[in-house]
């Protein structure tokens, strides 16, 4: 769990006094680092009783080229603007450039939040 409340430090670096304890609604989960592999999902209950599906591993992507959509295999992560180490570790996030048999594609969904990997074709 990760606390997402206000920092205990001020802009100046001075310490801020706690007015109260941490609250449950200020807690967050660790980021879901979706990797390439056999499909594996995790469903969590979030605030308001809703459900959210995290993609832990996947080897398939909904590849969108113009008006056509195909489910194709992911070969590897070419680059990831979120973190250069993610590309080396084949971690898929929104904005990552992946390689497929159809060509390169940019991930437009949030696999750790949406429960699906969607990508649009990239020229070049």
Automatic annotation (TrEMBL):
GO molecular function terms here? structural constituent of ribosome
**UniProt keyword Iron-sulfur present:** no
UniProt keywords (A-Z) are: Ribonucleoprotein, Ribosomal protein
What Gene3D superfamilies does UniProt report for this protein, alphabetically? 2.40.10.310
Name the GO terms of the biological process aspect. Answer: translation
Highest taxon listed in the record's lineage: Archaea
User: Which NCBIfam families has this protein been placed in?
Assistant: eS8
Q: What is this protein called?
A: Small ribosomal subunit protein eS8
Q: Which gene encodes it?
A: rps8e
